[in-house]
Amino acid sequence: MEGMSMSSEVILYVRSTKTATGEEQVGGYRESVTAGVQTKYGPAPMPIPYYDVKTVVEYDYVLSEDQQRMVEDVKELAARYGLVLTVVDLAKDSAFSRWRIEHSNKIKTLPALVTDSGEIVEGVMTREQIEAFLYRAGKSATRL
Asked: Model-level pTM greater than 0.85?
């Protein structure tokens, strides 16, 4: 039987989108030497400055607004009910392989909340729905 000290784990599966978050300019001025001014001894080499810049795009993993809100609600409410929360972002490879082994056949829709007793709720939930789900999860964890 589980004792009072056992805290239950809840896993929230989300999938972010790899999004370009900005651009960075890399490079600067360089000089190229060309034959320039004509002198009586022939063309004199003349340095010509030119601007050589590459634009590098930076990426980040971004959650949709509803998933982000859900993550915040679940974090806050899990703490209130003494549950340990793990957020797994399936867009990141290491998370995906672990998730695949554990729940790939069960979960069809993301985001999804899973308790360690195997209860699963899929899709975007309201704060009230999350609270009801975590309340039950917390109660089953502390039942003697």
From this structure: no
Please give the chain's pLDDT, 144 residues, in tens: 344 445 688 999 999 998 888 888 887 777 777 766 777 777 777 777 878 888 888 888 899 999 999 999 999 999 998 999 999 888 887 766 766 666 666 788 889 999 888 888 899 999 999 999 998 888 776 554
The Cα–Cα gap between 8 and 85 comes to: 9
Domain locations along the chain: 9-16+63-142, 23-59
Q: Which residues pair with 48 in a beta bridge?
A: 32
Q: CB neighbours of 105 closer than 8 A, spacing ≥ 6?
A: none
